[in-house]
Amino acid sequence: MFNEKNSTDINGPNHVAIIMDGNGRYAKSLGLPRVKGHEQGMETVRRIVVAANQLNIKYLTLYAFSTENWSRPQSEVSFLMKLPGIFMNKFLPELMRENVKVETIGEFDELPLHTKKAVSYAVNKTKNNTGLTLIFALNYGGRNEIVRAVKNIAKDVERGTIESSNITDETFSTYLYTKDYPDPELLIRTSGEYRISNFLLWQISYSELYFTDTYWPELSVEEFNSIIESYCKRDRRFGGLKEERHDEN
Ligand code: IPE
Ligand code: IPE
Ligand code: MG
Fold first, then answer.
1. Is the C or the N end of the chain the one with fewer CB within 10 Å?
2. What is the largest distance, in Å, between two alpha-carbon atoms of the chain?
3. Which residues, including other chains, have CB under 8 Å from residue 216's CB and lie 6 or more apart?
4. Where does substrate bind (predicted)?
5. Is the distance from the beta carbon of residue 97 to the nearest atom of ligand 2 less than 6 Å?
């Protein structure tokens, strides 16, 4: 949610969101099948989680599967649905050591049962951890999230639990998957694409955007740290003026 707390932050970001893109092209560049890129991408998730924890970032939201990704070949979709299970199997002990709390956003119910089971297990196992909250956007679409919020608001208006005249930005935010998280201060997209691809449409209204040509499987901790450093140098104005200019005129 955009609020005073966000606008006064001068240190590192609290919440970083990442569109992890370029797995397929990375694999292709090595003459490997696309799924190898997704596999390698998991290793990047692991190192960026550790790096984010070290930088004291509190929330890391990773776009893992969009509502549009169902249109990919069935074999790739089915591999992508196995990835959460593979990831948790391999890295859950490390996530526990890192004190990471796993959560998800998106249409969870529509995922295959084995995916839901693997993810729920990790969510449950890590629920009392107090370090970084690692949020996987799984079967997530920004428009879908907004339409879902509108439907639920309409229901609550019909029931009389809220009045339409009282609906504010804040009310709306509480109907989103992200209701428990602050808005991301920084959105990163890898692989040289300059688009949002239906990610966090509401939440990024004032996020700083950073695009890098690096494919997700090749994103290093050094580059991630330098992205965070460059964020820290940005001048976030939220429609206002820079502090020192308040006295002018
Ligand atoms: C991102 O990599 C991972 C997902 C969308 C699941 P891609 O699979 O989109 O890789 P490119 O963009 O084709 O290289
Ligand atoms: C966005 O990447 C979705 C994820 C990273 C999960 P895509 O590769 O699906 O996006 P487009 O097709 O390039 O817009
Ligand atoms: Mg892509």
1. C
2. 64
3. 20, 21, 22, 23, 26, 41, 44, 190, 191
4. 22-25, 34, 38, 66-68, 70, 72, 189, 195-197
5. no
Q: Say if CB 92 and CB 125 are below 8 A apart.
A: yes
The closest-lying atom of ligand 1 relative to the alpha carbon of residue 215 is: 14
Known catalytic residues are: 21, 69
Q: Which ligand is nearest to the CA of 18?
A: 2
Atom of ligand 2 at shortest range from CA of 68: 9
Is-contact 204 137, C-beta < 8 A?
no
For ligand 2, what atom is nearest to the CA of residue 65? 6
192 lines ligand 2 (CB under 6 A): no
Tell me the pLDDT tens digit for each residue of 55-77: 999 999 999 999 999 999 999 99
Rounded distance, CA 63 to CA 190, Å?
11
Ion ligand 3: residues, CB within 5 A, are 21
Separation between Cα atoms, residue 142 and residue 150, nearest integer Å: 13
Its pTM stands at 0.94
pLDDT in tens, 220-239: 999 999 999 999 999 999 99
